[in-house]
Amino acid sequence: MSALASSFRPVASRFLAQKLPLSAVRRATPVSFPRGSVRSFSQSPFWQLKKYTESHEWIELADNGKTAKIGITAYAAHSLGDVVYVELPSEGLEVSANEPVGAVESVKSASDVLSPVAGTVVRGNAILEDKAKFINESPEAEAWIAEIEVADAAELDSLLDEAAYKAHIEAEDH
């Protein structure tokens, strides 16, 4: 395949290097879409689905808008040090906002994981039962603590976005 491609390369280069008369160049006409049919990225709700708490938990609402994953932030994982045990919630547990949904123990200390919103636990992250240290490797992605069915998605509006959370961390460190 590469021999075939290299044999066409000189021909393609010569063809592209030729100057075409202006009349041969077609002008691109702008395509118009019906109003409201195109969503820009800035209006997409998906970039705002991850929120943070001042107590260093994160919550990420799923595309269905009903379930969310909860975990600890990278800052919290770094502050805890090497995680040795994760207490996962039991399925069906109903939690209110700011109630413990689990706990994380490290060589330095132990800390409750608080639910940022009210809801019902769907499941805990079984990976963490056998490999608690995974939280140190992927705290804000695959090492979530619990998945919950959110009682009221509007509660997420009161939480911090990424920029506000970073400002909170900087203020806390100083």
From TrEMBL:
Residues 67-149 form the Lipoyl-binding domain. GO terms for cellular component: glycine cleavage complex; mitochondrion. CDD domains: GCS_H. The keyword Transit peptide applies. SUPFAM superfamilies: Single hybrid motif. GO terms for biological process: glycine decarboxylation via glycine cleavage system; protein lipoylation. The modification N6-lipoyllysine is found at K108. HAMAP family: GcvH. The H protein shuttles the methylamine group of glycine from the P protein to the T protein. The glycine cleavage system is composed of four proteins: P, T, L and H. This is Glycine cleavage system H protein.
